[in-house]
Each structure stands twice: as C-alpha cells, then as structure tokens.
Amino acid sequence: MLIKTNLPQLKGMRLGISRYNVRHSFHKSIAVLNPHISAIIDGIAQQGYAVIPEFLPKEFIQALRTEALALQTAGKLQHASTGRAAASKLDTQVRGDLIHWLDQAQASALQQSFAACMEELREALNQHFYLGVFELENHFAIYPPGAVYNKHLDQFRGNQERQVSCILYLNQDWQPQYGGQLRLYLDGEQPEPYIDVQPEGGTLVVFLSGQFWHEVLPASQPRISLTGWFRKRSDNL
After folding, report:
1. Contacts within 8 Å (CB) and 24+ apart, 127-133
2. What secondary structure letter does DSSP report for 205?
3. Which of 159, 136, 149, 130 lies closest to 228 in space, CA to CA?
C-alpha cells in the first residue's frame, strides 16, 4: 500500500522573498501541514516509507529551487562523493550529483522556515517511534542530465546515526518522459519489488534509512532536490 496524501494549496500565502517575511508566513501555516505529517507517520508505521505530493506550497518550492540554482551559479555546489570522511570516494559514474550542505548558522530565512516544518516532523517521529533523532542534516542536490546515483543504502556500514531519509523535490513542471525517478527497493537488496517515484516539485519522500536500498535513475533534464537525514546521536558517545 502506497501512502499518499493531497493537501490543498495554502491559498493567500504569498512567498515573494523580497517583499514578504517568509518565515513569519510559513510559521503561521505549519498547523495546516499536520495532515501531511500524520500521513508520514502512518506510512512509516505501515510500510516504512511515505510519498507525499504537494508537501509544501508551489511558491515555496519555487523559492527553494531558485536558491539552489543561485548557489550553483555562484560555484557553491561540489561533486558529491560516496562513503564516510577519509574513506569517501569521488566517482561520477556511481554518483553524479552536485551538492551544497546547508549550514544552520548561515541559513536563509527560507531555509529556516523549511527547518521549522521539518522540526515538526522530527518531533512526531520521536513521539511515535522513539527514534531519538535530534537533528536534520541536509543538502541541495542537482543532478545534471544523465547523472545517476547507483543502488545504495543511506546508513553507512557500522553506523546507524541516519535513521530517516527525506527527499523534497524542487523540479518545475516535471514530465514522466524526463526520467530521473527514485527507485525504492522494497525487499532489501532484491531487485524486485520496487516502486518508482517521479521527482515532481513539492513531493516529499520519507523512508527508513537503514531499511530501503534505492537509486536515482538518469534524467534528460537537470534534477533538483533538497535531501536530508534525521540523525540520532552516535552510539560511541
């Protein structure tokens, strides 16, 4: 069973960054997102994942997309590597996206508003599943045409800090023929069954980081997302 929910656009909510206080407007609207959060909790409980269309208003998604593209233009995105720290490897045949990690200390008003929304989700996850997640680490990711991310698990070997993965798509007017689906494998490393999620702007995908292998399929258009992981504290502390 694929858990989805649809929430009407938050009418009357203007998100023009230069003329409007994004954070103030968005904080007032968090309560309206509760049905989405409830659907995520239900999806995690029933099947370990949830796919939520229109998680945030279209204007907000467009503003996040604009920030990601501005960072790319300014040369702030770097080729992503695989693996942890000193053991990480750079191989664009395995993983071809460009990323920019978000820094809470330097977050824009828009990023702070997004963080406030995700904080509501973090609290709900802890309340229902006792995960002990204490922070969200995330980055913008832009996949150039043809780029992929081969089948992988978000938890590093021997490290279970990443508990819940979250991918918010920022693409505009995405069409199925563009490709770029997220392929989520439902039975460990087995090639089937799986679901393919279209990276449509505003869709949020949430899944248990240590359970679901997944990959990013190639696209004919640039593919943009805001990807993150709710983390628990290291067991070594």
Report:
1. 128/41, 128/44, 128/45, 129/44, 129/45, 131/163, 131/164, 131/230, 131/232, 132/232, 132/233, 133/163, 133/164, 133/230, 133/231, 133/232
2. E
3. 136
Distance of alpha carbon 158 from its chain centroid, rounded?
A: 23
Average pLDDT value for residue range 160-181: 97
Whole-number Å distance between alpha carbons of 213 and 150 = 10
Contacts of 157 (CB under 8 A, 6+ apart): none
- The answer to whether residues 181 and 217 touch, using CB atoms and an 8 Å cutoff, is yes
Q: What does the pLDDT look like over 102-131, one tens digit per residue?
A: 998 999 999 999 999 999 999 999 999 999
Q: How confident is the model at residue 90 (pLDDT cuts 50, 70, 90)?
A: confident
pLDDT at 130: 97
Q: In sequence order, which ranges of the chain are alpha helices (DSSP H)?
A: 22-29, 34-47, 58-73, 109-129
Quick check: helix, strand or coil at residue 213? coil
Burial class (CB in 10 A: 0-12, 13-18, 19+), 42: middle
Span 66-87, mean pLDDT?
Answer: 87
Q: What is the reported pLDDT for 24?
A: 47
| Rounded Cα–Cα distance for residues 2 and 53 (Å) | 12
Q: Is residue 217 within 8 Å of 150, Cβ to Cβ?
A: no
- The residue length of the chain stands at 237
Please give the share of the chain, as a percent, with pLDDT higher than 70.
83
